[in-house]
Design a protein that fits this description.
mainly alpha; Cytochrome Bc1 Complex, Chain D, domain 2; globular; binds heme C; 2 domains
Length: 274
């Protein structure tokens, strides 16, 4: 008899857990928030507002699949993720110059992809301004993916899994360049770096304590902020290169970008003199 009660008890537990798991899946589990969908409290308003391309789970995950799909390249061997590696903050840490199809070397290396939603200009020289259209550059560059947009769309439209996933997001077929580029931007715009101890500190959060030594380093940090301000002040498209020029010794007396003499910048931003 005891044996039968034991079996009954086990059945009851199994049944109860079935319903509990079911409930969890159906209703009570917390909503899955798309990464980067919320503006961190210490960040300004984004340049590429979420309302411009409202983040959804399906579109974000589809964008992530595209980012890692080597079919975006002519040879089928290179994806966005080949150069922008997650383990290196979506930069490429082990090459000096990026390597595209057939090992072709680019002119520069892949930068980290982070907080792109807040950037007014992209690329090392600020040569691109829109997060949605920017991927056309690596896709068509012969040293990177060496492919055409038409071919990419043909490949996507020939894949039933992509047909289904795009239709789930946009409800229309065939897959268009608009849908493709917007979906890719769902992923790249989501890459937000706002979880460092520094971020916690400035947001006055519990886990944001800085050590005495780190706090002593604050003036140094302020100096970097000045550098960025100086670069914005110059209103130059050579954003990153200008900052590098300002920082790199020996200091050059020659005018930099748009004829603003370095000394003039330095007097306005004394902290730039390093
Ligand atoms: C062969 C390597 C390579 C591939 C593949 C590649 N990139 Fe890049 N990416 C780079 C390099 C190099 C730069 C910097 C280029 C420059 O400044 O001229 C860059 C820059 C960028 C930037 C600008 C980042 C910033 O902060 O300014 C974005 C965004 C980007 N890539 C997204 C993508 C996406 C999306 C794909 C896939 C469609 C892709 N990349 C494929 C090498 C690559």
């Amino acid at each position: 008899m005891a044996r039968y009660s034991w079996i009954a008890l086990r059945c009851a537990i199994a049944l109860a857990s079935f319903f509990l798991v079911g409930c969890n899946k159906e209703g009570t589990s917390p909503a899955w928030e798309v990464p980067g969908a919320t503006v961190p409290a210490n960040f300004p308003a984004p340049v590429y507002a979420a309302a411009q391309n409202p983040p959804t789970r399906e579109a974000y995950e589809l964008g992530r699949t595209l980012f890692y799909d080597t079919r975006l390249s002519r040879t089928g061997a290179v994806s966005c993720g080949s150069c922008h590696q997650q383990s290196g903050a979506f930069a490429n840490a082990d090459h000096r110059l990026s390597q595209g199809v057939e090992g072709r070397l680019g002119a520069r290396n892949a930068p980290a992809l982070q907080n792109l939603r807040w950037k007014t200009s992209l690329l090392w020289d600020g040569g691109a301004t829109h997060i949605e259209t920017m991927p056309l550059a690596p896709i068509t560059d012969p040293r990177e993916m060496d492919e055409t947009l038409d071919n990419v769309l043909q490949k996507l439209n020939a894949d039933p899994a992509y047909q289904q996933r795009f239709a789930q997001v946009y409800g229309e077929r065939p897959i268009t360049s608009y849908q493709f580029l917007r979906t890719l931007a769902q992923f790249t715009a989501a890459l937000t770096s706002a979880n460092s101890r520094y971020d916690h500190y400035v947001r006055h959060e519990a886990n944001g304590a800085l050590s005495a030594a780190e706090l002593r380093g604050w003036p140094q940090h302020a100096r970097s902020a000045h550098l960025v301000t100086a670069a914005s002040y110059l209103r130059t498209s050579r954003f990153a290169i200008t900052v590098w020029t300002l920082r790199s010794p020996p200091i050059r007396a020659a005018p930099i970008s748009r004829g603003v003499p370095r000394t003039q910048v330095a007097s306005k931003y004394p902290a730039c003199v390093m």
